Amino acid sequence: MSDFRSFEDFHPGEDIVLGSKTVTRDEIIAFAREFDPQPFHLDETAGETSLLGGLAASGWHTIAMLMRMLCDGLLLHSSCNGSPGVEEVRWMRPVRPGDTLTATARVMSTRALRSRPTLGVVTFLMTLVNQDGHAVMTQENTILFERREAAA
Amino acid sequence: MSDFRSFEDFHPGEDIVLGSKTVTRDEIIAFAREFDPQPFHLDETAGETSLLGGLAASGWHTIAMLMRMLCDGLLLHSSCNGSPGVEEVRWMRPVRPGDTLTATARVMSTRALRSRPTLGVVTFLMTLVNQDGHAVMTQENTILFERREAAA
User: Fold this and answer.
1) Which of A39, A94, B73, B92 is deepest in the core (most CB within 10 A)?
2) Residue B73 belongs to a domain with what CATH number?
């Protein structure tokens, strides 16, 4: 199998390690300022008095970092053609400045599309763990890939 | 009711209009460069040859813009204490440069927490429509709010 993946190259049960990312305080605050300016994503003191127990990244920033790892580790070397949606996003632990996050994509299922014979759908369970081995987020992504050989 | 909302101020069936946002080509490309550098989010020609049919915002950028409207239109004037997760994200139509997106949050259900008597959970159906009145995205968000009067 080459490094480039088409629909046929995904097999249920396979784990694909996507890469790692260390997040800085400046990145957490810059994302929050633009997209999620809640106090506990901007300021240590506000974070400490919140349920998050300290300054923590916006959950959407955490997802965006996962998406970048998914692009670099898989999608940019594939026949990816976008995604219709995502299921069951779970934010399980706060993401702190200095945390190193590692992303894995488990192939859950694959299905060729009857309606569009050039495409197939792959469902992944994405897991993001921190440097202590604790899961900070999971989500189920459905992604469209072109087939190497379209159905007759 | 004041403008500030606690858990008790949400009622199933209510629609809360969160605001609007016009997205530029530069914003679409800047987000994609950082978090989702797939060709159809960066380049008109690549977009035209993809399923998206033209340059289109990353779905995660669309969600981040919704989150900003949710903050400005509701959460920053509320007792919001974060969110454990999101269900059923659906990207229904491409978001193009120049599109004006309007967000609405429908209150689906409310539930006081037994395990944490100072908090309640509100589930929303978020809908983002474009300037033509077409839905471009929906998602179900579960958000924690402090109660004005904690249970005895």
Assistant:
1) A94
2) 3.10.129.10
